[in-house]
Structures are given as C-alpha cells and as structure tokens.
Amino acid sequence: MIITKEQFKKDFEKKMLKLYAQEVEDSTVHMQYFTLGYLMKEYISEGWARTTNRYTKYGEKQVYYFSIEFLLGRLLASNLLNLGIRNTVSDALKDMGLSLKEIEDVEVDPGLGNGGLGRLAACFMDSMASSGIPGNGNGIRYKYGLFQQKIVDGYQVELPENWLRDDNVWEIRKSDKAVKVRFYGDAWMKPKEDGSLEPIHTDFQEVLAVPYDTALVGYENKTVNTLRLWNAEVPNYTDDIQGELNFNKVLLNKREIESISEVLYPDDSHHDGRVLRLKQEYFFVSAGLQSIVAQHKDSGHSLSELHNYVAVHINDTHPAVAIPELMRILMDEEGMEWAEAWHITQNTMSYTNHTIMSEALEKWQIDLFKELLPRIYLIIGEIDRRFREILSSKFGEDQNQIEKMAIISGGYVRMAHLCIHGSHSVNGVAKLHTELLKSQELRDFYMLYPYKFNNKTNGITHRRWLMLANPELSNLLDETIGNSWRRNPQDLKLFKKYKRDPEIQKKVEQIKKNNKEKLAAYIKEKNGIIVDPNSIFDVHVKRLHAYKRQLLNALHILHQYHEILENPNFEMLPKTYIFAAKAAPGYYFAKEIIKFINALAEQINNDPRVKDRIKIVFLENYSVTLAEQIIPASEVSEQISTTTKEASGTSNMKFMMNGAVTLATLDGANVEILEEVGHPNIVIFGMTEKEVLNYYRNGGYNSREIYESDARVKRVLDSLTNGFIKGIQVEGQDIFKNLIDYNDEFFVLKDFDSYVAAQKKMEDLYRDRFTWNKMSIENISSSGVFSSDVTVMQYASGIWDTRIIER
Ligand code: F58
Questions:
Q1: Residue 7: CA atoms inside 13 Å, Cβ hemisphere, count?
Q2: Comparing C-alpha atoms, which of 664, 670, 679, 656 is closest to residue 782?
Q3: Which residue from 682, 645, 676 is spatially nearest to 543, judged by alpha carbons?
Q4: Contacts for 603-607 with beta carbons within 8 Å, 24 or more apart?
Q5: Is-contact 167 225, C-beta < 8 A?
Q6: 687 contact partners, CB below 8 Å, separation of at least 6
Q7: In the prediction, which pLDDT does 249 show?
Q8: Using 50, 70 and 90 to split pLDDT, how confident is the model at 522?
Q9: Atom of ligand 1 nearest to the CA of 318
Q10: Cα of 475 to ligand 1 centre, how many Å?
Q11: Which of 269, 432, 547, 639 has most ligand 1 atoms within 8 Å of its beta carbon, as the pocket-test mutant?
Q12: What backbone phi and psi angles, to 5 degrees, belong to 226?
C-alpha cells in the first residue's frame, strides 16, 4: 500500500483520539501500540475483503492448512513490512517523538505452538500469502499458549501464558459463521424401508465453535489470506432442553466445553492419549470442514467437484479425523453415496509426516474414541473394513501383514494409517526423512501406494528471519546485490561473489559483532552475566529433548573445563555457549538436563581459574521473539541430533541465513544444507545413518565400553556423580544412569569423540578470520533455497494443484 508520512500521522492522531480520547503527546506506549495495531487492521481490511471476494468470484482452488498449532510470533512488525510501509511509519512516528521499536515491544508473542511444527505452519502462512497462493489456516484459538518458562535455582518452572489478557488487535470474531460440533451420544445405522441404512446419532453434546479470523498479509502483493482459529463456547440453550437446565449442570457443561480451547498441550514429539486432546482435534477439524463445505455450497459449485476447489492439508496426524469427518458431512448431511464421498475425500486430503519417532505417532484407544466420537468411529470402521479388503487382495491370507497395516487393530485407531489411506499425497519434510519413511517406518505403505509418497523439504520465511530479524545484514545485501532477493530469496546467491571481498567481509563481521553486542546487553539484563562480544557465540536453541542432544554439548563443555583445570595455560579461543530450551512439563529427564546446564553455568562462570575462556548462558522462555534476537547474533549453529531422529529441523536454516556456520550431524535438512554449502562451509561429525540403523537393527552398542576405554569420557561422567559439579546430586546420578546403565539410547558417548574433534575444527576455522567470513558469506548466499516461498510453491504445484494468483 502507498501512504505518505503526513497522511499516516493524521490517521494515527485521529485513531488515538477515537480510541482513548487523548492526544498523542499524552499517550503511553501501550496506547500507541493499540492505536497502531487497530489502524493497521483498518489498512489491511480493504485488501482482505478484496482477496476473499476475488477467490470466490474466480472460483480459485483454495488450500486449507489444518494444524493444531500456529506459532505466529508478533504480527505488528511483519504486517508493516508486508504492507510496505514500515519505513514510512517508523519515520512518521519518529517525527512525533515516538519509537516504533518500543511500540513493537509491547505486543505479546502469541505462543500457540510447541516448536518446529507450529512455526513451520506460520512460515507457510506468510509464504502462501506472499506467493499469491489462495491459502487459509485452520486451527484452535487457545486461551493459554505454551507455558512461560522461568528458571528458578536452575530448575524449569512453568507459568500459564495468558496471551489474551489484553485485547488481541489482529483478530475478528465472526459470530455469524459459528457452527456446532457434536460429541458423545449413541450412533447406529437404522434400516430404512427400502433396505438402505440411515445413520442415527442421538443424545450428543453440542459445542459451539466460534471462528476468530486473522489477516495474513502477503509481501507487497495485495494478497491478504485468512487464518481461522476456533473458540469453544456453550451454544445458546433452546427450548427443547430448557426443562433440563439447572444451575450446576449448566456450569459443569460450560467448564467442560470451554476447556476444549483452553490450553495448548505442551508436548513435543510425544503422543498424549488423553480424551481432551482428541476433543480438540475433532473440534477444529469438524468446525473447519463445516465452514469450508458451507462456503463451497454458497458459491454455487456442486459438491461432487469439491476436490477441484478445495485442498485440505493435514499437518501431522492431529487433524486426521478430517478424513472421516468429510465423509460424514458428504454422506450424512449431503446424502452422497460412499464411493463418491470417498473419491472426493481422498482427492481433497493430503498429509505431512513430521516425525520418525514411534512414541510421537498418534493412536487412540478404541473405547475412548468410540465414546467421544461414535459416528466418526463407525465411519472409520467402514474405512478400515474396505482397506482390509484391499490388503487381502494384495497379501492373501497373510493376516499378520493385514493387522500390521490396518487402521483399527490391537485395540487402537492408528491415525497415520488413516491419513495415508485417506489422502492422495504423503510427504516427509527433508530428503533423508522421506527416504527413511519409505524404507523404514512406512515401508509397507510405500510398497502399497508408491505414487502417494513425495518429499517437500521444509523452509523458513526470509521476511521474518532475515528482513525483520537482521536489518543491518538486509541493508548490506541491498547495497551489494540489489533488493531482488527480498522478492526472490534465491537471488541471495548473488552475494556469493563477495565471499573473498575484504571490504564486504569486514562489513559482514561488523554486523555480526553489532548483533552480538545487542544480545550481550540482553544477557546482562536478563541473566546478569557479562559475556564478551569478541568470544565465539556458540548457540544451541530448540526444544529440550534427549534426541536433540543438548547433553552432548554440555558434556563437551564440561570436558573443556577439565582441560583448563588440568592445564591452566590451556589455549582456546574464548567461547560463549548459549542455550535456550523449554522442556515438556512432564518430561523429567529433559528437565534434569536443564538443571545440569544451569549448574555447569553457575560453576564455570564463577570459577576464576577459567579466566573467562568459557561462559555459559541459559536464556529462559525461548520463543519466536527471543529467537529473532539470538539467531542474528550466532556464529556456531548447533544441529547435533542423533542421526535419523530429527525429521528436518528449521532453526538450522534460520542460522545459516544469518551467517552462522553449522556444526552438524548428517540428520534431517542438515544433509541438504551440506549439499548447498559444500564441505568447506559446514562442520560435520558423528554417526552415519547406516551405523545408527545397524545398531537399531542388530544391537551391539555398549556405552559402558566407551566409558571404560576413553579417559575423557570417564572423567566427564565421573564428575557428574562425585560432587565435582555442585548442586546436581540427583540429576548427575540420573544422567549417568541414562548414559551407562540404560545404554545411552541416543548415542551421546558414541559421538563424543568426533564431536570434540569437530568443536576443535570449528575453533581453528574461526581463528582464521578470512576463512570464517568467507564461510559465513557462503552460508548466507546459499540459504535462499530454504525460503518457505520455495517450499510452498512446491506444495502448490506438486500436491495442492492450486493456481498462483499474483507474485
Ligand atoms: C518437528 N516436529 C520436527 N512436533 O521435530 C522437526 O524436525 C521439523 O523440522 C518440524 O517438525 C517441522 O517439520 C514437531 O515440532 C511437535 O511439536 C508436535 C506437537 C504436537 C505434539 C507432538 C509433537
């Protein structure tokens, strides 16, 4: 949009007056934020309505991305950027004596996601709008987002995240678009006179799903898409149940219903089998599909053509009930026959798998499922019956094989099996991950449906993770290669030609230094720790999980500490190790690792013998906003998961885009990062995929042998239990037990030796400033392929079959 400074000032003053009956000069920064936010919403709304109308008028095929999480991050800055008015607004505010930065800092970061999966959904939303793909998000408007983390005495403490405490300026409640979702009751098939069967569902509980819409503004392209999040509410009581009402019942009912959209499950890579979770899943899926079908019918198209106008994407298995729910709507409400409904459903649905870890794969106990969703269970039963017929025709009497692949088996409903059978496309999120799905976890399904399987490597939006997070680097890019990369991130490769240019190298180094100084100031303010901006910033930020191996990093630091104590003149470049990570509240071992890292920090940071060669910082409450501060200041990007375990990873991409050098195992998208930057520009270590699979298949790993034969490992592990590290009596024992008595499930000790060598190599590379800056530039200029703009275009053409409206 185009607006002059003067016009903006007038609008802003007028809005302030309207909202608060106050002049700008008397306003608080809070008022300024809400004034600006509401004004932005007004600016956006015209384009929003126009986009929605355009999609309907031209009968565009629309994508609906169904996801139980959307981890958006703050929206003010990104909306200003995408509208193309951020500089004008910033200048105008400055003229009025106000600071845009301070105003932006008032916004709460809506934490409606756990980690990578939720953040990916948000990057996709930004990229779809910016690439002109008619895309919508569909999810839950949780009242409480992911818990706030405090570190007290080194331990994680969780506090509720009441992000809706103040007004949310970005959402619009659409009461007129509310729908009802049915739970519980009895469902059966009643024979009709003509011999056919009629589905009956009685005595159900009804929940009102009220949508809240948020605009998703495309980057300078007049496209504004919609994110629809559903809120669970009590329906208005009608006459027919009036007689039953009594105060307690109403209150109980209200509590139960509202709890559906009350809180985000704080779990990463683990399936929680509780009924409330299944309620959440069916709630947003049913509401979303009802509104899609209603809209489709409104626009006058025949339902038999639904799949030509609508693509529903199932983000991991949490929205898997979309498959039977669409069948229900088409058959029970629209009178369609099974065969046609199934054809439409399969052609509408596509599914992404985000994990290879079996404990994360969703399966529901039949009894629980049947009780909560009786009609949906009947439909899944029929899907399963027909699927078993297909399997029988293929495998004959091999009952084992049929049970292995069935949707309902062993007392459970298996959601991944339902997704694969009920979709036309199944994709993994990085090349290695997709290959592992095909050859290991989902091998049988790949044999059955090879044409459904494909890879779509994840991506990140360069608008948030480079343009907004690293303005200085963005300016340097504009000065050197022009600004085409802002629209076409693949043009970042033009920057490569400066990799040996001493002047540009110096500028890249200086920008990194400036970002490090800012982060150092934040660390001082939050943790009271003074870190040296000239030290190497080595960063490990992501969810805390054993497979992500923060423990390997911490054990290496402990090893370095021992080296220093043993040899007071031990030579090393000063290093600042930065961690940030939330652990799932019930994940005991992950929390013990947090305590261990904090204890290590406390001891090493305060040991004068270390002479500031090592500093450790654990920043609490990792979030999108914090990541935006940390990543541009990072130099070493720790991506050290056990090979085969990290489906893709996305922070690895954000780091490289900001010039950090990756220290990695050949896992997830690290493999593709290596392909892009080449061996000289990344440091790889650790077990190969083959070695890991071989151990899993044939056994033979013995962590105790390593403990007994490698003196460094012994010294490090013994110091966990012998009181050398203070304050971890329990945690130290448990970590020791996990690594030695329980044989180190994630091969921490197996990779220890090569990790030590890789760390050393990193340090040597860093010493040579020319080499390091060259590596940094190579990483920045190779990062364009990891823009989610590229990824969503691949989804659009390869899976959703949607037209690109405008670029
Ligand atoms: C992540 N999964 C993968 N799950 O671990 C990561 O490798 C990948 O890059 C990312 O997805 C995007 O594809 C992940 O974040 C969750 O957080 C689930 C949330 C709901 C409960 C189960 C885990």
A1: 8
A2: 656
A3: 645
A4: 603/725, 603/726, 604/557, 604/561, 605/529, 607/561
A5: no
A6: 642, 643, 665, 747, 750, 751
A7: 76
A8: very high
A9: 20
A10: 33
A11: 269
A12: -125, 135
Furthest CA-CA distance within the chain: 93
Q: Which pLDDT belongs to residue 746?
A: 98
269: left (phi over 0), alpha (psi -120 to 50) or beta: left
Q: How far is residue 411 from each of residues 214, 385, 406, measured CA to CA in Å?
A: 40, 15, 11
CA distances from residue 739 to 546, 560, 701, 702, 745 in whole angstroms, order as listed = 11, 19, 12, 10, 8
pLDDT (average), residues 324-333: 98
Atom of ligand 1 nearest to the CA of 647: 7
Distance separating alpha carbons of residues 189 and 199, to the nearest angstrom? 5
Ligand 1 atom at minimum distance from 272 CA: 21
The pocket around ligand 1, CB under 6 angstroms, is made up of 114-117, 120, 267-269, 354-355, 360, 429, 458, 646-650, 668
CA of 181 to the centre of ligand 1 (A): 27
Tell me the CA–centroid distance for residue 404 and ligand 1, in Å: 25
Nearest CA to ligand 1 atom 2: 117
Q: Which residues are catalytic?
A: 354, 542-543, 548, 650, 654
Q: How far is the CA of 264 from the centre of ligand 1 (A)?
A: 14
Q: Which of 313, 355, 548 maximizes ligand 1 atoms within 8 Å of its Cβ, making it the mutation to test the pocket?
A: 355
Structure tokens at 520: 């150092």
442 Cα: distance to centroid of ligand 1 (angstroms)? 18
CA 249 to chain centre: 38
Distance CA 195, CA 322 (A): 29
Of the candidates 163, 75, 155, the residue with the CA atom closest to the CA atom of residue 625:
75
What is the DSSP code (8-state) at residue 642?
Answer: P
Where b means 16+ CB within 10 Å and e means fewer, 569-590 reads eeeeeebbbbbbbbbbeebeeb
Using DSSP bridges, classify how beta strands 636-639 and 661-664 pair: parallel, antiparallel or unpaired.
parallel
Give, in order, the Cα–Cα distances in Å from 45 to each of 1, 59, 670. 12, 21, 40
Tokens of 338: 């099974």
Q: Does the structure show a pLDDT above 60 at 108?
A: yes
- Going by alpha carbons, the residue nearest to atom 14 of ligand 1 is 117
Q: Is 638 helix (H, G, I), strand (E, B) or coil?
A: strand
Burial of 167 (0-12, 13-18, 19+ CB in 10 A): exposed
Atom 11 of ligand 1, nearest CA residue: 117
With contact defined as beta carbons under 8 Å apart, do 370 and 408 qualify? Answer: no
In this prediction, residue 766 carries a pLDDT of: 98
User: What are the two backbone dihedrals, phi and then psi, of residue 448, each rounded to the nearest 5 degrees?
Assistant: -75, -45
Return the residue whose CA atom lies nearest to atom 19 of ligand 1: 268
pLDDT score, position 803: 82
pLDDT tens digits, one per residue of 249-288: 788 899 999 999 999 999 877 899 899 999 999 999 999 9
What's the pLDDT at 512? Answer: 98
CA 445 to ligand 1 centroid distance, Å: 22
User: Which token pair is 707?
Assistant: 């403990």
Residue 214: pLDDT band (50, 70, 90) is: very high
Tens-place pLDDT, residues 623-640? 999 999 999 999 999 999
Helix/strand number for the chain, H first, E second = 34, 23
Q: Residue 328 C-alpha to ligand 1 middle, in angstroms?
A: 29
- Residue located nearest, by CA, to atom 6 of ligand 1: 649
8 Å CB contact between 136 and 225? yes
Q: What pLDDT shows up at residue 238?
A: 56
What is the number of the ligand 1 atom nearest to the C-alpha of 669? 9
Token pair, residue 279, equals: 């309620």
Both tokens of residue 485? 């990369």
